[in-house]
Amino acid sequence: MKQETLNNENDLFAKLLGLIAFQFENNTKPFKVLKAAISYKVHEFDRDHAYNVYKIRRDLGQRTLNHLKEFDEVLENLCSYEGERILIHIFKIDGGLLLFFTSIDCDKIFGFISSGENGEGFEENK
User: Which of 60, 71, 76, 52 lies closest to 121 in space, CA to CA?
Assistant: First the structure.
């Protein structure tokens, strides 16, 4: 039952974000409040530069298998992407960062990398 509730919460959260984006597209207040609450920033990078930086970061750290999978998915998708620029969406949260890699227009997501306080990825609380 707990997993079912968690899946339902995930679905509801995704739907809520979609509703906010649709309903308040001309009102920036909800977005400003959410961005402040979750500490969100976005940066534009050259695709090749981002690939090289995160390839080095992947190889330097002692990482769990799950954390390596996060890096590998992002790196593989960046390698096959034909665009020259990408966005990295940075969410600062308790215990670390969550980075999402997308195309410039946010039409394609390449994956995410979690980074805990010790540089390692963090595990989902169950």
Answer: 71
**In the Cβ-directed half-sphere of 51, how many Cα atoms lie within 13 Å?**
16
**Roughly how many angstroms between the first and final C-alpha of the chain, as a whole number?**
12
pTM above 0.85, yes or no: no
* Token representation of residue 96: 């670390």
Other Cβ atoms less than 10 A from the Cβ of 1: the count is 5
Q: Write the pLDDT tens digit of every residue in 27-64.
A: 888 878 887 788 888 999 999 999 999 999 899 877 88
> Domain residue spans in the chain?
1-38, 39-121
CA 3 – CA 111 distance, rounded (Å): 23
Give the residue carrying structure tokens 């994956």: 111
Closest Cα partner for 68 from 117, 17, 121, 7?
A: 121
Rounded Cα distance between 45 and 97, Å, is 18
